[in-house]
Specification:
Layout: H1 2-28, H2 36-58, H3 65-85
Pfam families: DUF1294
InterPro entries: DUF1294
Keywords: Membrane, Transmembrane, Transmembrane helix
Length: about 90
């Protein structure tokens, strides 16, 4: 069960990290964007660390207080939940 959960977390975090980069590129090119709702849902279901890393690497959503505070808080919640269930 643990390897499957680890794989899930890896995939979700890579996905959100990638979406942050894609959305930043699309924003610069004035193209269709990935919705904030989709970014948040992906963060809530386990991808917060990837989203937070994407914010730092791509300098994306760094002026949005909800993202700047929310993603690190979600990372903390996810870590606490993982520790609790282990």
């Amino acid at each position: 069960m643990l390897p499957m959960f680890s794989l899930y977390l890896l995939v979700v975090n890579i996905l959100l990290f990638s979406w942050m980069g894609i959305d930043k590129r699309r924003a610069r090119m004035h193209e269709w964007r990935i919705s904030e709702r989709r970014l948040w849902i992906t963060a809530v279901i386990g991808g917060a660390l990837g989203g937070w890393a994407g914010m730092q690497v791509f300098r994306h959503k760094t002026k949005h207080t909800a993202f700047v505070i929310g993603f690190p808080c979600l990372v903390a919640v996810h870590v606490l939940l993982i520790l609790y269930f282990l």
